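Milestone 3.1: sequence recovery, worked example.
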């Protein structure tokens, strides 16, 4: 990430949406109402069954109106269980809706962040903090540094342009700070068609750069003078 557009109001909305999602999840996890309705149904069914048993054993001991009332109590308890289950189902749907709101806001937040398409170093800044930026405006200039193009000069007497193409190379240089020699490997990527005096020609190689031991910097920096060695395949000259 190299820059971020003003997203303060959107982050407030994101926080509110996350809280609503958390609330919906807690409500969905709370099944006390369903447990209460199921317990009430079990009690109503047990009371109805007990009254029916007494009615069968001792006719007239319990009035029929009481049996009807208990039957209605069971039906009412069944409806309460159905209502509680429906509420639980709606609570799960509410979770999905709240999660979708959070996802939409998070996606919008990502779009407000300018992401570099390559790993590199910012070498130029076109817009400062607080400035207006229109769609398509350049904000920064990023130079890739994990792979570097190294330019060299060879004599055709040493290696022909055809023999140099696509060959492996190594670059070597002395670090002036530590007086230590570093080496990196790469491959020839292009040969310039123009021939220079002395049967010389220019070529270019792509070299994979590496981090320093502490991981805070790169070994090779653009503009550094290096020695480049080409290792031609046997038979190619």
């Amino acid at each position: 990430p190299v820059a971020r557009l003003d997203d303060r109001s959107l982050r407030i909305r994101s926080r509110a949406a996350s809280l609503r999602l958390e609330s919906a999840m807690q409500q969905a996890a709370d099944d006390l109402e369903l447990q209460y309705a199921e317990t009430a149904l079990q009690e109503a069914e047990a009371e109805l069954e007990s009254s029916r048993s007494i009615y069968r054993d001792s006719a007239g001991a319990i009035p029929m109106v009481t049996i009807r009332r208990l039957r209605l109590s069971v039906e009412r308890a069944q409806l309460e269980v159905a209502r509680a289950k429906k509420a639980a189902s709606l609570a799960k749907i509410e979770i999905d809706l709240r999660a979708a709101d959070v996802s939409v806001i998070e996606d919008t937040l990502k779009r407000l962040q300018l992401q570099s398409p390559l790993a590199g170093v910012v070498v130029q800044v076109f817009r400062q903090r607080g400035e207006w930026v229109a769609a398509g405006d350049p904000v920064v200039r990023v130079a890739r540094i994990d792979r570097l193009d190294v330019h060299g000069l060879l004599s055709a007497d040493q290696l022909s342009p055809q023999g140099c193409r696509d060959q492996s190379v190594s670059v070597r240089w002395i670090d002036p700070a530590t007086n230590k020699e570093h080496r990196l490997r790469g491959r020839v990527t292009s040969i310039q068609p123009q021939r220079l005096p002395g049967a010389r020609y220019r070529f270019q190689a792509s070299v994979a750069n590496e981090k320093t031991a502490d991981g805070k910097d790169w070994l090779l920096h653009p503009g550094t003078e290096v020695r480049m060695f080409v290792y031609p395949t046997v038979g190619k000259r």
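The two ends are 46 Å apart (CA to CA). The mean pLDDT is 86.
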